[in-house]
């Protein structure tokens, strides 16, 4: 079965080709993709800021309808509306809970597929996926919103490691897609959330989503956080932009003792961070890194989407047809954009 599939030929050059789909294995499903959102790592490969092998088929933020199932599939059925998480091994561990997953856009990164393409193709008319990577979404939810399951799941994973609790004050630095998703997860867990940003469009989006937004072009964000917390500082800070200044601000925003810092964003090239280890020691700080997500996190993300915990449509900037994939990437690379959603099949 040949399907229209987006491919990144080289930095700055994307196109749509006809590509043969693999046969379904016993625990795999065929999904008709409604929408696939372009993530940071993918437009980074397009603009040359991230080194990914080409030709690259891509797409791990997708949602669609199950069209066929393998002989041993039991968790989803034909007609189910699903969104994509990551693959994991469901057969050698005693329980699903907490299973470590593999990020599909990094699979096949070093070795090409049989047809010479690197990566996994979710930005296509149809995709073959493991059943365990599919999470059920309620009917009526916009596919471009459902496709936020993967990035939302990574925020759930980060918060699970973060260690902040109900009633804590959390600051998120950066109100891009991932910053706002981190803020919404913290808010869903009962935290008071402050979010810092300088771009008016992002500040407005954050406020429409009910977040306390601090305009860093108008005030000193550290002083404002101290003011809003009665001089105490934040219980935790999530750094959702990769910049040396953000790390310095985060340390200064934290409460004096036992503050928690979550390093969420990766930067290319990697930003420098000068941190005095004695500061961490005497202030008894907890610094946590996070990347990817597990089954439990995608399950939580699906619940948040299905219960409509926030107006996630705010984070879908524009919907562009699959046959305009070059334009979609060019739009995704423009500064200040939220998610560009590629429409792979019209309803």
Distance between the termini: 21 Å
CATH homologous superfamily title of the largest domain? Medium-chain alcohol dehydrogenases, catalytic domain
Quickly give the CATH architecture of the largest domain.
Answer: Alpha-Beta Complex
Number of helices: 10
Order of helices and strands: EEEHEEEEEHHEHEHEHEHEHEHEHE
The structural domain count equals 2
User: Roughly how much helix do the residues carry, as a percent range?
Assistant: 25-40%
**What's the CATH class label of the largest domain?**
Alpha Beta
Largest sheet: 7 strands, mixed
Q: Which value, in Å, is the CA radius of gyration?
A: 20 Å
Organism: [Collinsella] massiliensis
Cofactor: Zn(2+)
Domain Alcohol dehydrogenase-like C-terminal: 179-305
Family: Belongs to the zinc-containing alcohol dehydrogenase family.
């Amino acid at each position: 079965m040949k399907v229209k599939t987006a491919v990144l030929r080289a930095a700055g050059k994307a196109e749509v080709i006809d590509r043969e789909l693999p046969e379904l294995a016993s625990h795999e499903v065929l999904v008709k993709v409604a929408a696939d959102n372009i993530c940071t790592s993918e437009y980074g490969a397009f603009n040359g800021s991230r080194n990914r092998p080409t030709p690259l088929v891509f797409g791990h933020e997708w949602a669609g309808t199950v069209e066929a199932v393998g002989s041993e599939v039991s968790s989803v059925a034909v007609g189910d509306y699903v969104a994509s998480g990551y693959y994991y091994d469901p057969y050698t561990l005693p329980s699903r809970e907490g299973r470590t997953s593999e990020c599909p856009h990094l699979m096949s990164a070093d070795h090409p597929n049989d047809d010479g393409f690197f990566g996994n193709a979710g930005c296509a008319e149809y995709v073959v996926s493991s059943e365990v990577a599919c999470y059920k979404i309620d009917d009526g939810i916009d596919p471009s919103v459902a496709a936020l399951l993967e990035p939302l799941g990574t925020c759930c994973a980060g918060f699970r490691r973060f260690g902040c609790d109900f009633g804590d004050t959390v600051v998120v630095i950066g109100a891009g897609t991932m910053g706002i998703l981190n803020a919404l997860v913290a808010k869903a867990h009962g935290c008071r959330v402050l979010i810092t940003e300088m771009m008016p469009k992002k500040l407005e989006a954050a406020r429409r989503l009910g977040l306390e937004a601090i305009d860093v072009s108008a005030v000193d964000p550290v002083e404002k956080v101290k003011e809003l917390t009665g001089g105490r500082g934040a219980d935790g800070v999530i750094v959702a932009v990769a910049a040396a200044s953000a790390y310095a601000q985060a340390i200064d925003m934290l409460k004096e003792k036992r503050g928690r810092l979550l390093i969420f964003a990766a930067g290319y090239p990697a930003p420098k961070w000068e941190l005095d280890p004695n500061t961490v020691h005497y202030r008894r700080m907890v610094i946590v890194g996070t990347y990817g997500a597990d089954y439990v996190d995608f399950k939580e993300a699906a619940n948040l989407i299905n219960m409509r915990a926030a107006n996630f449509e705010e984070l879908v900037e524009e919907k562009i047809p699959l046959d305009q994939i070059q334009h979609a990437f060019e739009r995704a690379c423009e500064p200040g954009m939220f998610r560009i959603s590629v429409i792979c099949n019209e309803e």
